[in-house]
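Hi there, hope your week has been kind to you so far. Do you reckon you could talk me through the fold, stretch by stretch? Thanks so much in advance, here it is.
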Amino acid sequence: MRSVDASVRVLLRTWLRPGAVTAAQGLLIALLSLTTHVALFVLSLAALVLIPAFGVGFALFPVVTAGVRVCAGLHRRLAGWGGVGMATPYLPAPAGAQFGTWRRFRWVVADPATWRDLAWLLPGAVTGAVCLAAFALPLYGLEGLVGVPLVLHTVDVWYGYGPFWPVDNLVEALLCFPLGALLLAVGVAAGRWLVWLHVTFAGFFLPPTRSAELALRVRQLTVTRAETVDAQAAELRRIERDLHDGAQARLVALSMSIGLAEQLVRDDPEAVRRLLAEARESSGQALAELRGLVRGIHPPVLAERGLPGAVRALALAVPLPVDVTVDLPGRPAAPVESAAYFAVAEALANVGKHSGATRAWVQLRHAGGRLSVVVGDDGRGGAEAAAGGGLAGTGRRLAAFDGTMTVTSPVGGPTVISMELPCELSSPRTSPSSGTG
């Protein structure tokens, strides 16, 4: 009995479930292709023809191509269901490229992806329509397999299935079962091939070209550089403000106390002792503030103990158990190490303040030339990298090193923040280990 159950589970996992996904994918591709492709192609041609007609096409063509891009984007997403990733190919829009402006029209017309999308519409409609068979064939097979012809025959309803048209005796009704199973198997196999054919054909039109990838990369680096410069300027202003309002003010008070003590040293020794005590207290507070400021710039524990030790120190400061797992056969470069440290610090601070979690975990590992950092908790979830928030700042900090951050936090939890930074490690200093903070 167990072997039968295991066989059924294997059948569901390796055949029926992927077949159902392919059937749904084929149905959606066919519906999208049949309902939008021809209409968008006709509208695009009409917009181009109307360009000389009082400039109507100048405003209409970018609007129509926006719809074409939405349609192409849906096809890219459906291709992703089959494991074929297609990046967005469009060149970044220039400033002031609003709808109805000449700049918008010029940007759309100059983008090669616009014309590849338009060239894709009609042939994509044909291959997309064929994908309907990926849904129809398995459905027709299920119809025979579940015994619809037999049920209808027993209640004396005229019915036809496959070559049996009509099903007019019990033998033909029973033969619908193996025929349905055969059609289901053929439909699932053919459906995968048809969807693959459509996605492969779309791959000649919808992904970005090399020049588009380079342009998008340049735009991303430009934005990242600007954000990094802004972040550094803000950090310098914060340091200046902290020095002015904190350590500088205390050092001024210290200087005044020492000056008064010099004046009273002969006449009022008791007042001098009080002033010197105040000066000692002010110097201690100024020193503590300077140490805190230095820790905010580059923590000494990071330089002394490396990223694993610094992260464990952060874990000890969180008011709940934090499991720290490390697999780093060396040390990243200091700037990358610092970025990873502050990213973990921000994530753990959020865990302690907002998550309502009972436990958390941090994983550090290096593989494939990338430092992977994962911070998770079993709290209430709902975390997001909102603009102006700490996680958004962490994303900007990582982007300066071409890093990425992904926040997965459904309502009810768990929350998992995954970060990656491209880097190489220095000579091995840290062996794989794990611990609990």
Q: What stands out?
A: The beta strands are 322-327, 360-367, 370-377, 404-408, 415-422, 433-436. The chain has three domains: 1-208, 224-297, 305-436. Confidence is low (pLDDT under 50) at residues 429-435. The first strand starts at residue 322 and ends at 327.
